[in-house]
Structures are given as structure tokens and as C-alpha cells.
Design goal:
heterodimer; A: 153 residues; 10% strand; B: 123 residues; mainly beta; four-stranded antiparallel beta sheet; 10 strands; elongated
Amino acid sequence: MTPDFKGTHLWDRLCWAKENLDGVQSDYRVVYEDSIDECAKILVPDPNWMACALQGGILPPVWVYWELAKDEAQPDFKKHTRGYLLHETEPMGPMTEEEAIEYLIQKDVPQSVWKSWDEGNRPKMVICKKEQLPATREWRNAWRISDDLDLAA
Amino acid sequence: MAFGTLKADTLTHSTAGSLTTDYVVNGSAKAWASGTPTATVNDSFNVSAGTDYGTGDYTLTVTNSFADVNYAMTATGRGNTAGHIVTRNVARGTAGILAVEIETDAGVAGDFAFDCNVHGDLA
């Protein structure tokens, strides 16, 4: 059971998790395109992070990361001054693996992608299983999301 | 079994001298990862995801962001053949994104497993 980590520094929460939780390798992958001039990117969940998400009581709500990203996007940004949001905001409860992937997308995929992933002529983002990716790395820098995706499937 | 908290400002060895615990805290790697050529993370600390941007082009995103971009990152490409050139990609890196590019010793981007350690101040 996760200790009551309210107000505990996120670093200390991660230390507890590393000591007490086994990593969980997810089969999910998030493929996205954030530039028409670049190949598709592939986001892979970290196993220790996934263990924290499934356990609950460790990770801060995702809006905390959005706030820090806003600060860092300011032209005069030098240093984070609102790190306390990571440590003092009440941690998230346990998530399912699918909920954790949704959280991770909102944390680590550019907002310009996940906020409008299905707008336009073709999807900018797809969640898939690792077996659905090409089996080899051949032509990796030309990989794109297929135009033939059946999103209703 | 749960262990309690040891609070101390100084560690003293019987013969070798003393060390303030500031050195221990500040000298600890605040993030590390062992990654594969497809950005899958084998093991790590303070990392939320790996991202494969293309051949030899990877990022690691952290859970507890660094205070700024002035962290010290060391990374190595793993392999049993030729040497690898590993570069910290500052154009892509932020306080929460650690960016690594790996090339062969001929200067060609290549997919290699990699290790990454980061020291610095956390947000």
C-alpha cells in the first residue's frame, strides 16, 4: 500500500516507488506526427513510471506539468519557481494501464498533437501495440502514420 | 519491513573524515536510464517515457522536472563494435526533456542502445 504522500517531495515518492514497486513494461506505443516535414515519433512508457501510475498515490495530476510547461515557454524563463506544484499537489489515485497512457500522452506528447489529433485529413496520433509497429528499423526516418487507418475499428 | 528516516547533516567516518550530506544529495544522479535502440527503457529512475524521434534520435522525459536546462548530462552509446558519438541535443532538450543523438564513429546517425545519467537541481 502506498504511504500517505500528501506534501511529500516528488523525488522522495519516486525513491519509495523504486524501492517497493516492480517495473511494468507496457505493450502500448503512442505514434504521433508533430511536423509534416519529419517522420513519426514513437512514445514508449517507462516501466517504473507505469508502476507508479498503476499503484496510485505517487504521480501529480497532469495539469501540474502543463503549468510548468507554461512557465518554461515564457521568453524570460530562467528557472522553475513553481516546483512546489509537483510536490504539494495531492497525488493521483491508481490508474488503469489505458488511463495511464492517456495521462502520459497529455504529459509527454506536444499539446498541438493530442488536442487535435483527429482534426484534418488524417490522424496525427495513434495508440497501438508494439507488435503493430514495423518489425525492423529499415527506412525509420520515413515512417509515417498510415493513411489507411480504420479509426472505427 | 519499513525503515525509519535518518536525518543528519554530516556523515563521519572513523578515520577518513567527515562529509556533509549536502554532497550526497547534490551528488546523486537525479535521473538515469538504460534505453534500447527503439527508445524502450530497460530500467531507470525519474523517467516517464522514452521517445524515438528517428534513427539515433531519442528523448527521455522526466517525472520530476529539473529546475532549468543547466543540468549535467552524460550519455553513452552501447555496443561491442565501433565507437559511438553521443550528443546532447540542446535544441530539443528542456528542463523536463533529455535529448540524445547517437552517431557511428563515421558520423552517421545510428540506432544504438544507450545509457544516460543526469545530475542537477530539481524543480
